[in-house]
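pls design
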């Protein structure tokens, strides 16, 4: 993750997205039909940061299943999305935020419909100033 986002920690199963400027087709051909974009039900953007995933309960004892008894770290089910993916997400699940004068979207994993992933490493500096 870029130095700009070192202090920003995404929590749980959430994803930080830099929203697309409204293009209906990605460079590799992922296409949003006008009926979807006109209703603004689905939007696209680039994944900037991801949370650790969904925490797993510790069911090995009699006490609170969410409290780690032995001081070990919480275990998570990891997310399927990665930094640099292009994600299509349901707008109704998105929360708009502003961080360091830029607009971003936070979406839970369940709000993401599909991702497009390049095999090459992604340079975040192409998106963020």
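designed seq:
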């Amino acid at each position: 993750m870029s130095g700009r986002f070192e202090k920003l920690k995404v929590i749980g199963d959430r994803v930080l997205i830099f929203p697309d400027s409204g293009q209906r087709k990605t460079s590799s051909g992922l296409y949003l039909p006008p009926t979807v974009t006109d209703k603004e039900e689905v939007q696209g953007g680039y994944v900037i940061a991801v949370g650790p995933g969904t925490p797993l309960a510790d069911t090995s004892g009699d006490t609170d299943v969410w409290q780690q008894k032995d001081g070990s770290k919480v275990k998570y089910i990891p997310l399927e999305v990665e930094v640099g993916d292009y994600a299509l997400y349901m707008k109704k699940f998105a929360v708009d935020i502003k961080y360091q004068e830029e607009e971003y979207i936070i979406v839970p994993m369940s709000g993401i419909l599909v991702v497009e992933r390049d095999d090459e490493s992604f340079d975040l500096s192409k998106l963020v100033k």
